[in-house]
Every structure is written in C-alpha cells, then in structure tokens.
C-alpha cells in the first residue's frame, strides 16, 4: 500500500507560520477597531452631533435683545421684549464679578478644554444612582457646557442632551476664546425676576449697574444661575445667605479676595430691593401701533428674521411727543367722562371669587381705569355704611357709602345699594378716601400730527389701552360728517369757484330711481338762508350749499380729490359730499395737514428711523437725500436741508384758500370755542347722521389734530350732540396745554395769492375800509387766485357818499340793501 505523507512540520516552519498568523490577527482586530470607532463616530454624529451649529455659526451668534423705543428727543420710553436683557462686552464686567461666577460655577474654567472630566464622571455616577427615583442628578456642567445648553441645546433632562452638550462644548472652546465664552455666558444666563444676563439681574435685584455692585451683591448674583427660585429673599433668605457665604469662601480660597473682605461681606445683609412693577406704559395706543408696524416689517423673533422685535435688539426713534400725548390723553378722556357724567353708575365690570386669589383674578381681568388716581377694585365685603375693597397688588381699602351716591344707570337709587361681594368696580383715590367711578361706554379716537413732515406726535385710541386694545384712531372706520365738506369745496375751488361764489342755501332734491323716488337734503337746523357765499356756507356748515356745490361741479371731482388726499375711495353719490363715506381719524387728520402743507402730499409716520443692534441704519421714514448733511466739518454756510420732493396733491392756492376759509369757522362759525386761544387756528366740526359721531379736525400752522366721539356699535348719541358743542371743546382743552409754549405762527400764503376785502355775506369786493365801525363784521380779507378775483364790487367813494348822512348805527343788511345797483 502507498506510504502516507508525514504530518511532521519542522519547528522553524511552525514558528514562521504562527508569527504570520498573529500578525494577521493583529491587523484584523485593528481593522475591526478602526471600523468600530468609525461606525461609533458616525452613529454619534447621526444621533447626537447632527444639527449642532458649526464654529462659524458660534462666532456669529448674538443673544436675543429687546427692541428699545425712544421719543422724538431720543429719550427711552418703552421696549419690546420677552426676555429682559442688557448686553455688555467682556471688558464692561468688573473682574471681581467674573471671579465670583467662576468660583461659584467653574473654578477650572480657564484650564479645561470645555468639559471637566472629574465633574462629568461624578454626574454620570449620580445619574446612575438616582435613575428611576424621580430625583434629578447634579449637573456637573462647566460654564462652556452651560453656554451650550442655554444658547443651542436646550434644557431637556436626558443622557442625549448631555452628550450633545459635551460635543458642542468642544466646538465652542475651539471656535471662541475664554473671554468670548464668558461674555456669552454673562449676557445669556437666566437669573430670575425675568432677568436674562447679569446686567439685567443687577438692575432687577439691586437697581444698580454691574459697575456699582458691592462684593456681597456680586456674590449673591453668582449663586443664582443653577436655580434662582431657590434663593428668593421672600421665601428662602437663610438659604440665600448660606449659599452667598459659600461663594465668598470659594473666592477667598481661590485668592480673589482677602479673608478680611470675606468676613466683612459675609456679615452684610442681602440688600435685595423689593420687586417693583415695570415702568408704566407710555403712550399705550401709540406704542401699540408702533409695535404692530414693526412686527409687520420685521416679525416677532429670530425665527422671522434677524431683526425680530422681541429678539433683534433694534433701536427705534419715534415721533412721540410726551407733552402732546399727555394733553391728548387727558383731553379725550375728560371729554368721554364728561359726556356720560349724567348717566350714573353703569354697574360692575366683572365678577371675582373673593374666597380665592382675588388679587390675581382682578389683575387678570385687565380693567383699564384710565386716570392715574383711578384703580380697579373688587368688593370684598359690605356692611352698614361702608364696603371693604381690594386692589390688584393685594392691598385693601374702604369705600364709604357717601363715596357711591351716584344713581345706577337706568334704575336710579344709590349705587352703593347695588354693590355685592365679588363685584369689580373702579374707584378714585383722593388722599385716603375712595369714591366710586364709572368707565364710560362712549369712546373715540384722537391723532395729532406735524403738518410739515407728517410725523404723528400723539395718538389716543380710546379711554385706556389696557381695557381695550382696539385703536379707534387707526382701526375704527367712522362717518366724518361735515369734516368732509372742506374737500368738496377744495374740488370746487379747483374747478372755477371762489370763496365769494354765491351758492343758494335752499331746498335741493335729486331723482334716485322709479322705486326710490326723490332724495331731498336738508340742513341740520331745518332752515334755509337763501343766497350766500361759499365762505359763509363753510363757516355755518350748511348741508344744502355743500350738496348743491358737489352737484354743480360733479361728484366725480369730489371723490377724486378725497382719494388723492388719502381719505377714502368713494362712489360718486351726493350723500358722500356730506360725509357718508367712512374713514379713520388718522386719514382725515393727515388730509387736513395737507391743507396746512400747501397742498403737498404727506404720509403719516410714527417711526422716524430704525437701527440694528450695532447702530446701523436699516430703515428711515424720510428718504430724501440731503447733500452735506454728514459733512465732517461745518463750513459756516447755510445749514444743509433735504430737498422738498413731495407730490402736489391739490393746488397750493386752493389749499391756502381752504385754510383761510376754515379760519373763519373758528372766528365766526361752529368752532368759536377755540377763538380765545390767541393764535391763528383753522378747523371744521362734524356731526354724522343720528348723530352717531361728533368730530373736530383742525389746528395751527405747526400742529394739526382731530378727534371723534361715538359708540363702538354706532347708535344715537342724543339729538343735542354736535361737533361744535362736544368735540371742539375737547380739542380746545388739548390745544390749551399742548400749544401753550409754541410760537404763534400765521399761516403762510403761497406765491400768487391775492388778498382782497370782501363782504362775506354778499361776496362783493370792497375797496378800502368801511367809513366807520358799523359794518366791519361783514368785511374780511379773502384769498383769491389771480384769475378768479370777483367782479362785483362796492366802491369806496359810493360807500362814503351814501353812508355820510346816516350817523345812526346801521345794520349790515340795511346798509347792503342801500347799495343795490353799485357794481
């Protein structure tokens, strides 16, 4: 049989074979390890690192900042924010404050690479021992990890979040310097009392800037990052003292303060100021309109764009004038209260459970009391001749029966008798005494504007913006009534008529249709005055003369003028000549401002310009170029000014003629209540059908305003309600305060206007003055375009000849009758 091969392998060959096998295994396991690590890294990236910001994104990060609003003089008046934060640079934080936060939060901050291995290991062990117990493990986070958590990762409680936080911490340390990391941390961290960042917290707890803080105050702020609610002075003062003193001890151990400093600071009280209410709302309706416009332009937060108003850190310069706003608020509010003063108490404003947290529930009702000394209150109990009342801040007071004697509207009897526990009311405080008040049902809106620029100086959209955010100055569409008539006559002046044109104040009817028949118009008084001049018709607000004028020139021209001046786009029906079309206070005030601006177009603006957080101008209302306005050195020549580039809406001479005519409304017409203000004033009153609205619009050469009163659901205000008796006195009250210190400036006539003496009742031109003072009331200076001077005249020599024999006082009508045939 054949010989089998030998199984013997030489020792040397076996050793070589084994060595090659071991090398193969090393390479194989090295490959396994490499691909395992690669797979682990891919999984780590896929599950944890994916979506984290890059180094470039970290370098470009900017914390959310509030939008700051300033008035026309640059004074801060409001801000829009969801997080109260003031951003400072690293160099603006005192070194002692930086050392305090490092001692309290991360003593190895300047040496670790982003995470503290020992602290992290301890946190993992603590998490494992507490897993499933419902207790939260200690964080073990460095300042860098806290920056990652606060800025990017979020605050969910999980292993995945800690892993993502650690990954991002390494990225942050690689992208930013330690000083940049600390700057982000000190500006971003939440420290309670709605304070984000140390500067904001410094103001919230001590009403100081960080540079003014003492050592114990700095140490207190340094204890807050982990859990501000655990160290409130109201509930945990002892715990706060212990923790503060621990931070002081750590600062001394780290060599940041001496032992003497530590002992002195530890003996000091916390010194925290009580919580205080935020600054009262300034210009509520004005600021709300500013906020709406900014949101429309920039959005709300960073998700809407880099300049979201709650996070973009914008700087807003507005046209807000505090003095004018206060005058407008006070005048309109007084007028609303005065209108309903006789109606009595209107009943409770709501109901609150007095056995629960009544102060919180009262505040949640958001009752707008208007005046500074009016307060929302809830009746807690009533006994005998007094009622105990409570306020939003939790304090209490007493309402005596004599303070609530007004009758209840529609019922009668003392209001005090109808009060019950839980009723929400409004009271006025005078010293230590309280008296019941009633919030008016009537409302209204008011706007004040600079007629040279279109800037809105003041805006009031109701009794109180807290009680109703609906802005009646910009959102309420109301019939303007007779305040629309100047636009009818402006169209007439542009189409051949003059202030001396004779118009019949008599019956006027138009055929509508076979079904509707005739539509006949009437004056407010129901009476007719026959032939009168245009001026007289405007001064006396005659409906029949207005509708006849609109019919004569064509309603298409009237609605075209109204549209060009921004009042509204109306159909060409005669009823619209009497103000039947709806508009807003803002629109009609802006249109009246165009009269004062010599017929040039204006755009009403509340915001002058907007700057981003770095001071760069990103929007400006006045877009006109101004050569030389930014010159490095003033050359002594006339100051550079932007060129006038506004569009001419109506003829400048027409605009001045209407101004001059409306001066007569103040001097002799329906707004004589303004006559004693001691300055040239123009304006027009208005009363819509019902009457449902009463108006006044007008002003001076440098300030134009307007207002209306009416119920939100339009209904009759009462047959006695008229613009001249209700709205005009409100404007008089406003102007007396707002214009008190303004220069007395006459209205400026444009080039080409001729001033001629006219008898305002007959339209006859008068050469020279009347021979004595008997007839002066009928003669005024009237403005005419050169091509439209009246031909009908009364000559001076004829006046003197016929008037000389008559020494007795003669009425205007008697004298004019004696002038028949003199032309």
Q: What fraction of residues sit in β-strands? A: 15-25%
Summed up, the domain count is 5
Helix content: 25-40%
The profile of the biggest β sheet is:
6 strands, antiparallel
- Overall mean pLDDT stands at 84
Please work out how many helical segments DSSP would assign.
23
Q: Architecture of the largest domain, according to CATH?
A: 3-Layer(aba) Sandwich
Class by alpha and beta content: alpha+beta
CATH topology type of the largest domain: Beta-lactamase
Give me the Rg, rounded.
Answer: 39 Å
The CATH class of the largest domain, by name, is: Alpha Beta
Q: CATH homologous superfamily of the largest domain, by name?
A: DD-peptidase/beta-lactamase superfamily
First-to-last CA distance: 164 Å
- Overall geometry: elongated
Low-confidence stretches are 771-776, 802-823
**Quantity of strands, as a count:** 26
GO biological process, one term: cell wall organization
Domain Penicillin-binding protein transpeptidase: 444-733
Pathway: Cell wall biogenesis; peptidoglycan biosynthesis; Glycan biosynthesis
Transmembrane segments: 29-48
Overview of the structural elements:
- The structure is a single chain.
- The protein has 823 residues and is α+β, with helices and mostly antiparallel strands.
- The protein has five domains: 23-52; 90-266, Biosynthetic peptidoglycan transglycosylase-like (Penicillin binding protein transpeptidase fold); 341-439, Nucleic acid-binding proteins (OB fold (Dihydrolipoamide Acetyltransferase, E2P), Beta Barrel), CATH 2.40.50.140; 446-606 and 647-738, DD-peptidase/beta-lactamase superfamily (Beta-lactamase, 3-Layer(aba) Sandwich), CATH 3.40.710.10; 754-817, no CATH class.
- It has 23 helices and 26 strands.
- The strands form eight sheets. Strands 6, 7, 8, 9, 10 and 11 form a six-stranded antiparallel beta sheet that branches. Strands 2-1-5-18-19 form a five-stranded mixed beta sheet, with helices on one face. The chain has a five-stranded antiparallel beta sheet with strand order 13-12-22-21-20, sandwiched between helices.
- Helix 5 packs across helix 7, helix 13 (322-339) runs antiparallel to helix 21 and helix 15 packs across helix 18 (555-564).
- The longest helix has 39 residues, at 11-49.
- The N and C termini lie far apart (164 Å).
- Residues 771-776 and 802-823 have low confidence and may be disordered.
